[in-house]
Design a protein that fits this description.
Layout (H helix, E strand, L loop, with lengths): L3 H12 L5 H13 L1 E4 L8 E4 L13 H16 L3 H14 L8
Antiparallel strand pairs: 1-2
Length: 104
């Protein structure tokens, strides 16, 4: 399913991403959450099924709603004066943008 070097090259060209280390766990999460394994009979290999969402895209848990929730959490933490936690929330929000799927 995944061609990581091609994806990294596209992110570099289209979004000017230079440091992929913070995005690594997000890529792994999307890859592992987009497939299921069904165990059949003992001593046989499981059947792997690729989960697909709309428009034949991988099923991703990063939606626009989850992105807005992270952003709102950062706003709330900022108004409470918890700036280091707010910075972490905003950083997570920015890191999720390249992997967010918006269908309309």
């Amino acid at each position: 399913m995944g061609d990581f070097p091609k994806a990294l090259d596209l992110l570099k060209k289209q979004l000017a991403v230079g440091n992929f280390e913070p995005l690594k766990q997000l890529f792994v999460d999307v890859y592992t959450l987009a497939k299921m394994k069904f165990h059949t009979l003992p001593h046989t290999n499981p059947i792997t099924y690729q989960l697909r969402g709309s428009h034949n895209l991988p099923q991703v848990v990063l939606s626009l709603n989850s992105l807005m929730a992270k952003y709102n959490k950062g706003i709330d933490l900022t108004t409470k004066g918890e700036f280091s936690q707010a910075l972490d929330a905003f950083r997570q929000c920015i890191q999720c943008v390249p992997l967010t799927i918006v269908t309309s």
